[in-house]
């Protein structure tokens, strides 16, 4: 073991030196480019930017309604921030990824606002706001239970003053001042599709860098030469992969080459930044695609070397990967508007690490997951014993199958496994533990990098404390809550909700087994099929044909929405309207095809198995019990236990609701003074109605085993 660690350390030193050599070669190339590369690093990729002035005829102003964007699509807290800044006499825009997502008819992860007000002026406008950040400070505004990040045009302009002067000299002498301010700011964005501005008061979208064209062709391209862009901030590599994974984008040749060449540079990022980017990848509904792209660009070896080695080995032997199926089932539950806390994916990694290093009897895994899901030992064991007869073959995770264990022996083994899950957290937080675990894969590279914060690891390990201490008296504390996921509690890392969802994910994975594919366990067109996932990992690239089938649906969700067929977009002042739009008949035809495609991806109800009946009966019984009046219990002990279980949850919910109500009352008083009571009430009702429709679209957990 000691020799294996020495070999691993030597390999780590060697890889560090080779990465340094690559960095030196890259710097030498930059040196040859000289002043030209430094001066024009803010320019769009061009053969010789020094000889070309800025072509303002390519700047575009698009009417938002013509590309399917309406004001009702903006989140209520963001709209309030925009309106208050606008009434204060400042220009205010939505910028970046939220504009991109609105154009694709997707729910933005967040809404970023930029304004002509400086940071101090922004802070004075709001009751609860603070300025954070050193290099690029922003103002965080707390409003209506949300946090809106507001940046200032002044910040970026002051930070890159010298570069701005060089760029301004290439502009035409006659240029609109507002266009100039927006354009200068857009040059500091990472990708063209993130450089769009949306003015909600004129309902115009401003595109200065060809972002709309790249978005239409589903291509990710940097604003400046990709090597220069990623050297300025190597975190853009991770951000680019995350965006491409979620939106199924392809890469420009320049961007793809730079990602390969500079992938090793992410090892120098701050651990907090790494954790932030990885959490965005794994907690927002695109974990499988993200892992595949990390593997493709040799980044998984740096971030999660044990998991990278596991995937490489299974790819070589063509065995089914339990790890990928776990994350596939996580992706089915979460999304940008319903994300999970990081404890979910950290918990899944811990669970899988424990299984790989200590293979278990299938009955032990079924019971472990079932107890997490049902919230108590008795129901969990009954369920596990009934469905452990299903053949599940994961190698090396499952060692054997047995149905004859006594409850006492089973309880000991499950508690022991829960303890192993807790111990595996060290691989994610301690370099020495990581090197030790990698002795299982002696020929796989290992960077020695660990980035999961110890506080996150500690809180995740605590999820399994009750199972280790006394599993037979285990009560999750979720009580008889609705079988549907509470996404608010899941998003803030509530232990009871997190345990429940972890159990659901593991049960789904065990139920599908290695023979499962998306036609059996997937019921959402955004899911990437496990079969396709294995092809991705075996071929080391994403099959273009399969991905592109899904892409058009994000542009044409229904017959009332369309994208420009040929976009020749010009400034409104020229009064030229030469945009060719997709006709309504074409849209309806495409929408019908899309609906047919979605239907073919969904499960046939005739293929549901016997497990569906069990869960459906329990959920129906649960609903009927809620409708009836509670019966009197003859045993005082049973009554007190149920009372405690139910009220533990209700108190937590009451505390959360009370805190949100107090915040909203303070904010409403301030908002009514600025916007007027009638407008505030009108917007509140409008967004409540839309939120209700979104909630109604959340699938019931009765589909767990469909």
Which word captures the global form?
globular
How many strands, which pairing sense, and closed or not: the largest β-sheet? 8 strands, mixed
Rounded average pLDDT: 75
Strands side by side in the biggest sheet: 1-8-7-2-3-6-5-4
Uncertain parts: 15-51, 516-587, 597-616, 626-653, 690-706
Which percent range describes the beta-strand content? 5-15%
Domain tRNA nucleotidyltransferase/poly(A) polymerase RNA and SrmB- binding: 250-309
Protein name: Poly(A) polymerase I
InterPro entries: NT_sf, PolA_pol_head_dom, PolyA_RNA-bd, tRNA_ntf/polyA_polymerase_I
Biased composition (Polar residues): 697-706
What features would you describe in this structure?
The protein is of the alpha+beta class and 706 residues long. The chain has 34 helices and 14 strands. The strands form 4 sheets. It has an 8-stranded mixed beta sheet with strand order 1-8-7-2-3-6-5-4. Helix 11 packs across helix 14, helix 17 packs antiparallel against helix 18 and helix 19 crosses helix 21 (407-423). The two termini are 45 Å apart.
Task: Show the helix and strand layout.
Elements: H1 2-33, H2 35-39, E1 60-63, H3 76-87, E2 92-95, H4 97-103, E3 112-115, H5 119-125, E4 129-132, E5 138-143, E6 146-152, H6 153-159, H7 161-168, H8 177-186, E7 197-199, E8 204-207, H9 211-216, E9 219-220, H10 226-232, H11 235-247, E10 250-251, H12 253-261, H13 271-282, H14 287-296, H15 300-303, H16 305-317, H17 322-331, H18 342-357, E11 360-361, H19 362-374, H20 377-387, E12 398-400, H21 407-423, H22 426-429, H23 431-437, H24 454-462, H25 465-470, H26 487-491, H27 495-512, H28 518-521, H29 530-539, H30 544-555, E13 564-566, E14 580-581, H31 584-601, H32 610-627, H33 636-675, H34 677-696
Parallel strand pairs: 3-6, 9-10, 11-12
Antiparallel strand pairs: 1-8, 2-3, 2-7, 4-5, 5-6, 7-8, 13-14
Helix pairs in contact: 11-13, 11-14, 17-18, 17-27, 18-21, 18-24, 19-20, 19-21, 19-27, 33-34
